[in-house]
Design a protein that fits this description.
alpha/beta, Endonuclease III, domain 1, Rossmann fold, DNA Methylase, Chain A, domain 2, 3 domains, seven-stranded mixed beta sheet, two-stranded antiparallel sheet, 26 helices, 11 strands
Length: 655
């Protein structure tokens, strides 16, 4: 690891410690994911240390399935092992060990090993090693003929139960591709097992040694294979340098975009999947930036800027823009001030704090400021429908948002328009109505192309039957959970692959993680709330429940909510319909989003399913922050449809 000679020693030490902690944290996360994906299976290793040693000798340079068969046939014929040393058995021994080749070499190795063990111990057993310390057992094993470092470590791990981490070719390949040890300066390129073993061992936490080794071996045999790894279904691909570099290069030379108020990256992810490269993203929320960096590999992570858009000076913005040509400027401006579920729904609060004077409602003006500097071909601003009809207090008077946008963009040479979308029209299992304001720079584009760009409603999903995807349909393939159950990472259900092949655009986009499910832990409910939750019917509100079952709030110890002011404080999502609009308030409580069939609120993953996020998309931060990220996002499936439509129109300009 290179060090800056001018850095203070304490700063260098702090940075070094942070890197070490980051590496161990990543290894813990990889271990957790691989355990969920593969379940730490039995690899056929032996409990008896001598049996394991013989098996490992036979398995060298041999396909594992063939090695198992050779060993079992060998053991069946020559156990007890003293038979191996009888001269009359040499021909039979060679025959038993010759399957798959290397018969003479195997026979020599086995005979010399057993001869030495018999000479030194007077028996055909290594059970006495269980009484040794790990270091003494290691030294004894390495003193035996044909036993190398890797073989000794495998015996220590599998048979003697020591927390040691053997490094084989599968693990070297995974570490080389993922580069998870690079922050501490550890590389495993073009080195043999002995060197790799010494470099890797200090960084693997002892408690992970067995599970991480076993599951990495499985992963290397099935997914991270030599030649062409199966990155598309790899459960740890987001933490893999090889995958991220490959994805980054895949969009080289494509159209580019800037994402303001980028959040978790819903728009960027959808646009990138449509072939548009994000070159800059800005958001003030730290966990959202962490989520974005992890899940959007098509951008330089240093260009995901954690900052308040409004505080960024012109010079700073121009430095970030550099000489990049920007094709798209997109912005999911915070909508709380314009939303019907915010201040506007509460007249008393509106009177105290008029939404038109709220600073948050003026954030759309940042889009104008950035557009003047970046001069993108297309500007997309997403918000709730009411933004188009709302006013803000600006320059001593109230101005209509839509009129203000039209005026400024037209003065810059843009044509403008607006489209109202329901995410359900794109195959997303959620009723989410939004306004998309569009501005297109006329210079360099035919008028007919500009017309088509503004005709954004032509790209909406092909839902012609009138039957939207129900939320229950979207939940298929996820495990059933009780309140308080679940985990940050868990295994998928057996029917996941069946659901993945359903053939609709939603399934093709979302079901992309056939080994592990992320962010799928359910909240706990108190006893009083659970009484209400369990009584709700599908699609039923708190108000209608109290009319039908007033007894559910009898003797309630917690606060009893007024059905007039909080008519949907509790709400069970209807199993046969799309979800209601997923909102950031889920960060505080989920009683308004009760699972259609289970007595609990929906998980972050289930909310993400309602938004059309792929299952491989991992949300960072505390659970509350994860809910907020999901609720604030533009559904990636909607963004994908828009991005693909526009990219097709601009292809003639070098896309």
């Amino acid at each position: 690891m290179q060090r800056n000679p001018s850095a203070r020693p304490e700063a260098t030490a702090a940075a070094s410690m942070a890197n070490e902690e980051a590496v161990r944290a990543t290894l813990c996360r990889v271990d957790e994911i691989l355990r969920a994906a593969y379940g730490t299976p039995d690899l056929g290793n032996k409990v008896d240390p001598l049996d394991e040693l013989l098996f490992l000798l036979i398995a060298q340079r041999t396909r594992i399935d063939l090695a198992r068969k050779v060993y079992e046939d060998f053991r069946r014929e020559f156990y007890p092992w003293k038979k191996v040393l009888r001269p009359e058995n040499r021909a039979g021994l060679r025959r038993a060990l010759s399957k798959g080749g290397r018969g003479n070499l195997r026979m020599r190795a086995v005979r010399e090993l057993l001869s030495e063990i018999s000479r030194r111990t007077g028996s055909m057993s290594l059970d006495f090693l269980r009484q040794y310390t790990m270091e003494d057992a290691r030294k004894f094993l390495l003193s035996l003929p044909w036993v190398g470092e890797k073989t000794a470590y495998c015996v220590l791990l599998y048979s003697l139960g020591h927390p040691i981490f053997p490094v084989d070719s599968n693990i070297i390949r995974i570490l080389r591709r993922t580069q998870v040890l690079s922050p501490v300066g550890v590389t495993v390129n073009r080195i043999d097992h002995r060197v790799a073993q010494k470099r890797v061992l200090p960084w693997v936490p002892a408690g992970l040694a067995y599970t991480l080794h076993v599951n990495m071996v499985v992963h290397g045999r099935t997914i991270c294979v030599p030649g062409n790894p199966r990155c598309g279904v790899c459960p740890i691909r987001l933490w893999c340098s090889y995958y991220r570099h490959r994805e980054y290069r895949s969009l080289s030379g494509n159209l580019t975009m800037i994402d303001l108020f980028s959040g978790a990256g819903g728009i960027s992810y959808g646009f990138a999947r449509a072939g548009i490269r994000p070159v800059l993203a800005v958001d003030r929320h730290v966990p959202s930036c962490e989520t974005y960096r992890l899940n959007v590999p098509w951008i330089d992570p240093h260009r995901v800027v954690n900052a308040d858009v409004t505080s960024m000076k012109k010079r700073e913005i121009l430095e970030l823009l550099g000489k990049n040509n920007v094709d798209f400027l997109v912005a999911g401006v915070p909508c709380q001030g314009f939303s019907r579920v915010g201040l506007k729904s509460k007249p008393a609060l509106r009177k105290q704090k008029p939404p038109e004077k709220e600073p948050i409602n003026k954030l759309f003006m940042e889009v104008i400021r950035w557009a003047k500097l970046a001069r993108p071909t297309i500007v997309l601003l997403e918000n709730v429908p009411d933004m188009g009809r709302s006013e803000v207090f600006f320059e001593d008077r109230n101005v209509r948002v839509r009129e203000h946008l039209d005026k400024h963009f037209r003065s810059m040479g843009y044509r403008t328009g607006a489209v109202y979308f329901n995410a359900a029209d794109f195959g997303v299992p959620q009723v989410r109505k939004r306004l998309f304001f569009v501005a297109v720079r006329k210079k360099g584009l035919d008028a007919a192309v500009v017309d088509k760009i503004l005709a954004l409603d032509t790209c909406r999903g092909n839902v012609t039957s009138g039957r939207y995807l129900s939320f229950s349909d979207a939940l298929r393939g996820l495990p059933a959970l009780e309140a308080g159950a679940g985990a940050a990472v868990s295994a998928v259900t057996k029917d996941y692959l069946t659901e993945r092949s359903r053939g609709n655009p939603y399934a093709a986009f979302v079901y992309d993680s056939p080994f592990a499910v992320f962010n799928n832990s359910a909240r706990q409910h108190n006893e009083d709330d659970m009484r209400i939750v369990s009584a709700l019917h599908g699609g039923e509100t708190y108000k209608s429940l109290l009319s039908r079952r007033p007894d559910v709030v009898a003797n309630r110890r917690m606060k009893t909510y007024s059905a007039t002011s909080f008519h949907d404080k509790f709400f069970r999502l209807h199993p046969g319909r799309p979800s209601r609009t997923i909102v950031s308030h889920l960060a505080k409580d989920g009683n308004s989003f009760i699972h259609p069939a289970e007595n609990r609120s929906i998980t972050v993953r289930e909310a993400a399913r309602a938004q059309g996020f792929p299952d491989s998309f991992v949300f960072e931060g505390a659970r509350g922050a994860q809910y907020m990220q999901v609720g604030n996002s533009v559904p990636p499936l909607v963004a994908y449809a828009i991005g693909a439509y526009w990219r097709g129109l601009l292809k003639g300009r070098g896309a």
